[in-house]
Amino acid sequence: MSLMSSVIVCLGVFGAVRLLCLPWLCSLLAGLGLCFFWRGSWKSVHVALCTIKRDLMCLVVILRVRFSMYCNLRNRRTIPALFVQIATKHPNKPALIYEATGEVWSFMELQERCHAVAHWALAQGWAEGDVVALYMESKPLVVALWLGLAMIGVEAALINNNLRQKSLLHCVSVSGARAMVFGTEMREAVSEVSGSLQSDMVLFSSGEQDGEEKLCGLHVHSLDTLLDHSPKHPPHYTPRKEFNDKLFYIYTSGTTGMPKAAVVVHSRYYRIASFGFHSFGLHHDDIFYNCLPLYHSAGTIMGVGQCLLFGLTVVVRRKFSASCFWDDCVKHNCTVFLYIGEICRYLLAQPVCSSEAHHQVRIAIGNGLRPSVWEEFVRRFRIHRVGEFYGATECNCSLINIDGKVGACGFNSRILPSFYPIRLVRVQEETGELLRDSQGLCIPCLPGEPGMLVGRINHTDPLRRFDGYVDRDATSKKIAHNVFKMGDSVYVSGDILVMDEYGYIYFRDRSGDTFRWRGENVSTTEVEGVLSSLLGHTDVAVYGVSLPGVEGKAGMAAVAHTGGQFDLTAFLNAVQKALPPYARPVFLRLMPSVDTTGTFKIQKTRLRRDGYKPQDSSEKIYFLNSRAGCYEAVTDELYNAIMEGRVCL
User: How confident is the model at residue 37 (pLDDT cuts 50, 70, 90)?
Assistant: First the structure.
C-alpha cells in the first residue's frame, strides 16, 4: 500500500471513530460535571474519579469492536471470509495443535480442510440453511467441519458429546438436521438411538473405518475417505449469507430441562471473540490453551475464535485434565488459557508440581472463577491477569471485568449508566418474577441489592440483538416488555447479580438457587465457595430442601467424598466460624461424586428431588442436631421424625 493510500485509510478510520466517539465523550464530560450536583453528594464525585479510567478503557474496546463490526456489516463479510483473510496473511503459521496426537495444522492446511468439507457438502446436495449435526469429541476436525459448512451457508448443530439417548435425540431433532457426523468414539451412543432417527437421516463417521458400513440397519459413510478425495481448492460458490445471518447452533447445558438450541449468527461470533481479544490484552503471537469442549461457546468462540479472527495459535485438548494442565502449557509454550466453571478450583486442588512454576501463561480468560479461590489461584500460579467475563451464548447483556477487580464478573458505568443498556431489576424471591412500579415499569436495584440482569434488545445493533433459540416458545420466555420504558423489550438472563457503589457487578446465583431460611436469603454460590475452600477445593453443591410445616427451605450440602473418615466435628467447627447460623447446612450428604455438566456446572436437579431421605448405600446423609451441637446420621427413624415434625430445627 502506498503512503498516500495509508494516509487516506487512517483518516477514514479516524473520522469514523470520531463520529462514534464524540457523542459519548461529550456525554461523559457532561456526566462528570453533573456529578458535582448529582444528589448533592461529593461521594458521587469520588466514585466518578475512581472509575473514569476503567470506563474509558471499556469505551476504547467498545469503539474498536463496534467500528470493526460496522465495517463487516457494510462489506457483508462472514466468519469464513474473515478467516480466509487471516489464512492468506499467515499461511504457514500453526493454527491448531491437537494435544492428543501432537498434530499441527497450519492456517493453510486448516483452510484446505475447510475447502474439502465445503466440496463434500455441496456433493451431498445440501443448500444454504440446511443443518448438519456434529457429535464428536474436541479435535481440530470439528473446527474444519463447521467452518467448511459455513463457507457454503450450511449450519452446524454442535451436539454435546456427553448426551445420550433421549437428550441426544432431542438435540438432533430440534435442530432439523439432515445429516449427522459422529466420531467413532460416539459409535455406541449413536447406535442406541439409530432406530429412532428419521429414516432419511444420513450418517457419516470419522475415525478408523473405511468405506461404508451399517449401524442398526442405517448406512454409515466414512467421512475421512470422502474428505480425502474431496478437492482442496476454494469451492466455486458464493453464499448469500451476510454478517447477521445464522452461523451455527450451540445448546444450553440443560441443567433445568432439555437443552435449547441457541442461534449463533456471524456477528455474534465476531462480537464474543473480538471483545475477548481487545479487552484482556491478547497479542497476535499468543499461544492459546483451550481445554474446553468445542460444543460450548467458550471453547469454540472465545477460544477457537482467537485463531480464526486474530491469527493466534490454539492448542486443542480432547478433554480437560487437571493433572496434565501445566505440563501441556509448558510443552506448547502457552501464554493464555481458557477456563470455565470450576477449572481453577480443580487446579488448586492438585498437588504442587514442577511445571506450574515453569509455564509462560500470563492471562487466564473465562467465567465462573469463584471469589473464594481467585486470589489464591493468581498467587500460586503467578497469573498476571484474569479476564473474567459474564454472558450466556445467546445473551445480549455480556459483561467484562476489564481491570481485574477480584470477584467481579464485569461492571456498568456509574458515570453514564444508560450508555450500556443493561440493568439489575428487582424480582420476586420465590418465583423470579420481575417486580414493577405503579407505572408498570421494572424497578432498578440500588447498589448492594441483588437483582435480575436484563439487557435492552435492539435488532438493528449487533451488540444488542437477541437471536434466541430454534424453539420460538423458549425464545419468547426470555423476553420481557416495558422494562426500561414503555414499549421496549429486554432479554432476561435468569441470573441474580449484585452491583457495588463503583458499578462492579458480582454473580450471586442462578435464578431459583437462592433460598430463604430463618428470614434470611441464602446464596448457594457463596456457601458453596466457603465450604469448598474449607474442604480443600472439593466439589460441593448447596441447595434448599423443604421441611413439613416449616417456612422457607433448609440448607443442604452435597459433598464429594471418597474413602477415609470424614471428620464431622472438625467440619462443623469450621462451618460455625465461617458461616452465619442461617447459612450453615442443616443437612449434609456425602457422596462419591457430585454430578456436573460437560462444562463443569454442578447439576442439582436430582439432588433436590432426592432430598434428605436415605436411599443409596454409597451415600451418607447427616442432620445438624442444634441441641446436641453435632451432625448425626439420618436413619429411617430420624427421617420419619423430621417428616412428622417431632425434631427441633
Answer: very low
Return the pLDDT at 30.
53
| pLDDT value at 615 more than 60 | yes
- Cα separation, 312 vs 283, in Å, equals 8
Q: Give residues with Cβ within 8 angstroms of 237, minimum separation 6.
A: 118, 122, 151, 152
What cell numbers appear for 207 in the block? 475415525
In angstroms, rounded to a whole number, what is the distance separating the alpha carbons of residues 515 and 25? 43
- pTM score above 0.70: yes
Separation CA 455–CA 483 (nearest Å): 10
With H, G, I as helix, E, B as strand and everything else as coil, classify residue 409: coil
SS3 content of the chain, % helix, strand, coil (to 5): 35, 25, 40
Q: What is the pLDDT of residues 206-224, one digit of tens each?
A: 986 565 677 766 789 999 9
pLDDT confidence tier of residue 577, bands split at 50, 70 and 90: confident
Which secondary structure element, helix H or strand E, spans residue 609, and what is its range? Answer: helix 605-610
Q: Are 175 and 163 in contact (CB under 8 A)?
A: no
Mean pLDDT, range 388-409, rounded to an integer: 93
Residue with cell 471418597: 562
Task: Confirm if 475 and 507 have CB atoms less than 8 A apart.
Answer: no
The string of DSSP codes covering 129-179 is T-EEEEE--S-HHHHHHHHHHHTTTPEEEE--TT--HHHHHHHHHHHT-SE
How many Å apart are CA 197 and CA 172, to the nearest integer?
Answer: 9
Q: Are strands 630-633 and 620-625 parallel, antiparallel or unpaired?
A: antiparallel
For residue 578, what is its C-alpha cell? 465461617
163 CB neighbour count, 10 Å cutoff: 23
* 630 — pLDDT class (breaks 50, 70, 90): very high
Q: What is the CA radius of gyration of the chain?
A: 26
The β-bridge relationship of strands 261-265 and 246-251 is antiparallel
pLDDT tens per residue, range 240-266: 999 999 999 999 875 556 789 999 999
Average pLDDT, the chain: 88
CA distance 586 to 649: 8
- Please count the CA atoms within 13 angstroms of the CA of 140 that sit on its side-chain side: 25
Yes or no: say if 124 and 146 are a contact pair by the CB < 8 Å rule: no
Name the DSSP class of 384: S
The cell numbers describing 215, all together, are 449401524
Listing DSSP states for 524-568 in one string gives HHHHHHHHHHHTTS--EEEEEEE-TT-SSEEEEEEEE--SS---H
